[in-house]
Task: structure prediction
Amino acid sequence: MAGLCESLPNFLCKFPAFSDVSIRAVRKSVDDGFKALVRSYVNAIDAMVQPLQWFLNYLERLFVSSPWPIILLIMLAIVYFGSRNIKITIGTAISMLAIGLLGLWNDTMVTLAMVTVCTFIAILVGIPIGILMARSDRVQGVINPILDVMQTMPSFVYLIPVVMIFGIGKVPGLIAVVIYAVPPMIRLTNLGIRLVDKEVLEAADAFGSSGWQKLKNVQMPLALPTIMAGINQTIMMSLAMVVVASMVGVGGLGKNVLQAINNQFFTVGFLNGFALVAIAIIFDRTSQAYGKRLQKHSEVIHG
Amino acid sequence: MVSHAIEVRNLYKIFGPRGGDYVDAVKNGLGKAELNQKYGHVLGLRDINISMPAGGIMVVMGLSGSGKSTLIRHINRLIDPTAGEVLYDGVDVCKMSENDLREFRRHKTAMVFQKFALLPHRTVLENTVYGLEIQGVGQAEREKRATQWIARVGLSGFENHYPNQLSGGMQQRVGLARALTNDADILLMDEAYSALDPLIRVDMQTVLLDLQKELKKTVVFITHDLDEALRLGDKIAILRDGMVVQQGTGQEIVLNPADEYITAFVKEVNRGRVVNVETIMAPLSGNPEGMPIVKGTVLEVAARAMTSANQTLAHVVDENNRPVGAISLSAIISSMVTPTSHEAKAA
Result:
């Protein structure tokens, strides 16, 4: 096949790309334009993300500086009352104690604070967008491709604009994590609402429900199992992204992993990795058990 | 509370994106098949004119695809008509604003669905209060009223069960209680009993008839079962391919079926339970003979009374015990069996 090229005109053999000079010019003007834009709004952007910063710092300080037994007890209480499952609670206690013994307690707390805030914001942003999508096919048509891009774009790539806009630090990390973790929340909220039984919706209409009443009484409760699955996915994706976000200055377990990669610290890397896995499993089991408990009514089928 | 009649006038429904464009063509005789083939639109209802009696049970009967469920959805406008009007108390439901329509649905109508359409995450009590909750009635008041209706449909003690824990018949009782708790003038029942097995269905029919005796609501009942239609209906309309083929009382339809289609239907009917004695009685000539039978008695009951009394002749009396006609056992029996003309027509 290589020989074929000799008998063909050049532009069929080598892809006729734009010249390096022109590509560079375009690239430079886009980059400069973007930078200038960011520079001119830097104050507004800072003011906008300030509350996030406060919230994040407050929660982190609360988690890190409270005596560990109190945090552990609160965690166990949440896990127990969420799941009502003694096995999950004991598992949580053991893994948290192991994390503490291995000297990873503070880093774990930092990560926990981060994931909590990220999940909270992802839910806050994701559910309303999901509802909007479910209500209009046109909105769905616009948002779906955006979500596709968000989910397939390598996460390192959108760290770049995030860093350009917000700089290095916790908040840019948080924004990157939320961008990465919010798509399943939006998609599953949309899907859950769209899957609600048409007959039940018709009944709600027949009794004269307003749009809000229908959403509150019928659509959201019936979509809840799917929405819970979305929350679960969002938590898992936040935990995964926290490691990547350490590249832009997020502390905690992710930072340790990053250092371990750079220095080939095999043990440190795996210990921190396992700590992340432990948190992931605790979150996952608890939220799933909680979701299942909410659906108690559908379990007892008449025989 | 006085219920009003519902007047359906010149109602057309053509399903499809440009249904309105074809109304005139359909009025001028464009058929269902042709509309579908040439223009890709489906003719749902065609020139429906029915006046549904105030405080009575109107049964709309038809097989699947006849448009009966479409018709009932026009009364509370879950489906918008392509042309025509639905009048209730002088107001055209089809022309109501969104707000008026919502108020109309909240206060004037209540609906029972074939597949129950209960909220699975709510208990029986929470399902039953739904209509009042939407109206904004306080919790104590709505639960009091709901509990009362739950008891009336025979579900006391099940208030805190979830629909999934109940059988089909019980679930439909919840559906009925939910509709009745609304205390609306119009009760719409869309094949409400079709998903129930026969014994429970008869049971639920009895519940409805008993309740209707005191409530006197304007009930619109959809069914594909002629026996159910005859048992419940003060008036019956039979739909076929989106058109009314015959409407009238049960007796009128059984005795004078309008065409072969209906003849085929009524062939299987137990006439003894539908036809009344005064329908077939002969004019009184001379003195009343035999035993008295009260007007309104169905033939089966009359025949049973006469055979057990060992009489072949009887006279029909009105409410004041005045004789109004004469009847013989042989006349009763010949009316109870399907006339040969019908057999031939149906075959």
